[in-house]
Amino acid sequence: MRTIPMLAVMLLCTGRLASGQVHYVSHWGSHTAPYSTWETAATNLAAAISAAPNNAVIWVTNGVYRTGSLVAGGYNARVSITRPLTLRSVNGYSNTVIEGAFHTTATNLGANAVRALYMTNGILDGFTLRRGATAATGSVSATSGGGLYAGGGTQMNIRVAGNIGYTAGGAWLDACTVSNGLFTYNQTETESTVKINSHVLLTDCLINNGGMSAPDIRILGTNAAELVNGAFTQDAGSGTDFGQAHVLTGAFTRTFGITNQGNNPLVVSGWSMQGGNTGDWQVLSFPAAPLAAGTAGTLEVEFHPRSIGPRRSLLFVASNDPDDDPYALWLSGEGVQASMLALATNGYTVITNESVNPLIAQGTDFGDVRLTSGDTMQHAYIITNNGTAILNISAITTTNLDAGDFAVSDPSAFPLSVEPGNIATTRVVFAPQALGYRATLLRFDSDAVNDPYRFAVLGRGVEPEMQVTGLDDLRIANNDMTPDLADGTDFGLCVTEALTQTFTITNAGTYALTLTGTPYVVIGGTNPEDFIVTRQPAAATLATGGTLDFEISFFPSMATTRTARVSIYSDDIYNTNAIYQFAIRGDCSISNLFVNIQATLRRVGSSAIEWGDFNNDGLPDLTVLGFDGTNRYSDIYQNLGMGRFTNINANLPGLQSGGVAWGDYNNDGWLDLALCGISSNGVLTAIFRNHGDGTFANINATLQGAYTGGLIWGDYDNDGDLDLFISGSTQSSMVSRIYRNNGNDEFEAMSFNLLPVRDGRAAWIDVDKDGWLDLMLTGNDNTTPVTRLYRNTSGTFTNQPIGAVAGVNLGGLAVGDLNTDGMLDIALTGYDANGLASTVYQYSGGTGLFSIASSVIEPLWLGDCKWGDMNNDGRYDLIASGAGALDQRKVQIYTNAAGVLSAMPANLPGLRGSAMTVGDMDHDGDLDIALAGLSTNGYVTALYRNLAISSNQAPLTAPAGLSAVLTNGNEVILSWDPAADEKTPANGLSYNLYVGTTNNPIAIMSPHADLTTGQRRLSGMGNTQLRRQWTVRNLPAGETIVWGVQAIDSGYAGSQFTAGAQFDVPNLPDFVISDIQIRLVPFLASVEVSNIGTTTGSAGLLSVWLNRAAYAPSGASGDLSQVVGSIAPGASEIIEFTAFSLPTNMVTNTFRAYINSDSAIEEIMLENNQATNRYIHRIYEPFWIQAVAMTNNVYLRWINPTNIGMSATQVKLHHSTVNYPATTLDGTEVYQGSAQVFNHTGLTPNVPSFYTIWVTHDGTNWLAPPP
């Protein structure tokens, strides 16, 4: 220290404190303006003063404040008070220091020096002002008062020490009040260390004006570098940053040096920790004896953190150094401690230590786990070390209560160490050992500060329990095999409608019940076919306490007591084999009753209806078209079994008053669908190909649209594939037409002379059993009701007189063997020429073929009729529907007893405008009935289950003695011996063939049945009807043919197939007419014959026709014929015909060609009706007219009109001088005749002439010639 003179001056001072808002300054504040709490206190004085308003009080806690500065009084100052406010320390000047700065360590005065305090107003209370300095030159305010420059205000309880200035290094005082002030060890370059000017009031002040020696303390860091008194910086190099120490066990000691650089002995009198974490440090030792000048000692400080995280405090070392007392050292360090935190895995939710409330959200509640199924529940917990030391876990255990139900599966070994900030995972498995709630404590033992860490875990052992209730909520015990009317397990007596009972499944257990059956509820036992689950439970899973309903309907198949067993499969362990079962029963006392199964079907009239197994699942599906009073529909209902049907929404056009026919027209094994009727867009007939996946596509065949007629599939030409017959109204006319199936989705309209009719039906019937399907149709020819039989002779049809058979329309037509004599009989209903008529006709042979049977059936019209064995006695019964006298609507069943029909009560609804079909929809061995039509109560579409006393079985033996004889190379005659059936006489059995190749056994002829089981896909007679010999033509050359046959009884059940011996078709020529070209003038017909077979051969006789009306019988002798010679495979030959006269009649004519192989008759239609001349491939000479002008005449010539296809040579020529005559009334006629030249004379030169010529067929009607 420098030696400076001292002068003690004691003066009495007075002053007052300012009042107002309070602000705070602390080294430990957050420095958040306006610094109104200790927590938000400013960390430097200048900021607080700037934020404080006038008259505010600023409280300052312990510390050395040596940061921040501003220009005041023309020079730098650490603190400036120029407004009325109070700056007051908490603990006085011994603990609160405002420290300025020297210019440099070598030069005290200068531009970088900072005065400790500049003050012109306010109050300063309780501070040490030290180490301030001034500028070396400049104004008085810049060079005076290194510690304090007071130009006003009040200064009390202050110490001004160790400052320096150019003048008045300690203080420069003017117009101020100072009390209890100590001015000591300040230095000045000139004048006194304290300059007292005018108006200064000093009270109890001591000014030590130098001349005395003093000690000078310096404290050195652990690196021997000097630690600046009050310096805020802490670092590991100097030892002021102690680093990390464990909160519980850690303590670090640093040894600092203390030197006396003064000239008097240094006495270190003590130490104190000022603010912050004062309890974390203590001084273990300091120099106990005075340190002589130039000597050194040590200061030993220990850091023992009391908490985790950064720690900081201010060490004051007290000594007798006049200007460095206290010596302030900032110390820092970090308390570290392992601390465990348990987290749930779902979103890292904290599980509180000592938590006793398990929660699902935290994973401490394991929820429900089944007791006996071996189920477990595993939860993972995340262990986080959120401390600052390594966490060591020594054990994780379950303790207390149901500890055995919980097991720690991971980690498998201990200790488990977790670095600070890192995580580890433990897994706990809950496997309940008993029903009900199970709990324990999960304990973690470790060296964490919060050891032990533990919390409660919980789970529940559960099991489902099924209960079933019935009527009036009465419980039905498991394995209750005694049906009871009270609970509904006894359905009671069924009369005409199905009986339905609702049952309820309840989960009375503590765990979700799962129904495991497929379906959930199964009917078994003695008569399962009589009980149908019409509504299954809506879901597979049932929560605790939840319920699910299901319905069972009783559809008796026989007039007896019927019983069954209900089985419900679930995961209820209390049920034997996990099956809850009970018995049900019902009664039916009326024989041959038909019961409505209440199927969900659209109700329509003007309908058509037919069975057909479109998806090959063995269950007949149903197709219904009709009108519901608003819209037209065509629906396919899939048979799901057990009386359940569902609309597949096949996207078919809605139709009414039409027909439905199932048949595999392309022999791919899937039933295709033909429909006709009235749609919203007009009349339609269409074929829809079955893709086999539940979808259908219109093949867009060229078919005549029709309604109120017949629509039937049948192989009229014996080539194995199905052809289609259509009859009915076309709106503008009527039609009866066969469309030949040419393969590849092509259907050809055949020109058979069939009577067009409407309001009728049609049926294929091999009436003479010659192996060719004959055609019977009914209807109205716009004059009278008719019934026609067309006999099929090798693929051509002729009208066959049928004697006593009346013509009928608006009714039904059915073919069956009434008296099982092996010949087909017919039933007709409807209106004949005399009124209502319904008659059964037996085949009798002779010229009329049929005679009226002795059986009398009720006359009905606007309905339908079908044959089928309804009572399983082996004979064909008759079902008829329609309206009788006085519009009495009926559906009547006539049972057949030895060929005599008698009415049987069946309780079926009466319908008109109706259609019906029979088939075994439920495979219970009897024929059920599907109906659609209009009852007195509205439209009806319904399915009636047959409750026949006995069940029909398929024929006992399949056909035997199969034989195949090839004729004509590619034609075969297939035959077999009779089969046998338990009930149907042998003569009453029909037969069903399949014919194909080794690659596709039905490629040639489809049986519409399953080849393995014999299960029929259509309901009716087989494809050969009652005949046991059949001819199949046009077999593919060079192929190996496979075939087989089954027998079908009167209930339309099929036997197993018997396969015939395979045979090979030789390679053969195959001749077709591949093209026809026509040139009219002169007439020339060019017919191209091609061999598409595999060998060379002679085509035979080629016949052609002309001048015959379209659709004339194709069997008529040709107009011309030529023999076609040998043609090689793939080659063609063109044959020309010229010896024809040109057609003159004004109707549609045809040119036809036929090669006498098995190919089709090819034809071209010609329309020549004066206004048009239309035909296919026409080749003709164009019409021309020429004119040459002379002086006063014009010479004209033209082509003979017959060369362009006209029937006459006449022309009409008109002339005009204005423009071309547009009609025969324009201009002047100058010529009419048959010449091809005309000389028009007497014309005026230089005047234009315009000519128009007309031609004619008949000399009366004139038309412009074609170009």
CATH superfamily of the largest domain: Kelch-type beta propeller
What is the helix tally? 2
Describe the main β-sheet briefly: 12 strands, mixed
- The total tally of domains equals 7
Low-confidence stretches at least 5 residues in length (pLDDT < 50)?
Answer: 1-19, 1109-1116, 1144-1148, 1166-1180
Number of strands: 101
CATH architecture of the largest domain, by name, is 6 Propeller
Tell me the span between the first and last alpha carbons: 139 Å
Average pLDDT reading: 87
Proportion of beta-strand residues: over 45%
CATH class of the largest domain: Mainly Beta
Q: Kindly identify the CATH topology of the largest domain.
A: Neuraminidase
Report the C-alpha radius of gyration, rounded.
Answer: 60 Å
* Secondary-structure-derived class: mainly beta
Description:
This protein has 1267 residues and is an all-beta fold. It folds into seven domains: 22-208; 217-336, Immunoglobulin-like; 340-462, Sandwich (Immunoglobulin-like), CATH 2.60.40.10; 466-591, Immunoglobulin-like, CATH 2.60.40.10; 638-912, Neuraminidase (6 Propeller); 960-1065, Sandwich (Immunoglobulin-like), CATH 2.60.40; 1076-1111 and 1119-1255, no CATH class. Helix content is 1%, strand content 47%. The protein has two helices and 101 strands. Strands 1, 2, 3, 4, 7, 8, 10, 11, 13, 16, 19 and 20 form a twelve-stranded mixed β-sheet that branches. A six-stranded mixed β-sheet has the order 5-6-9-12-15-18. It has a five-stranded antiparallel β-sheet with strand order 22-21-24-27-26, with no helix packed on it.
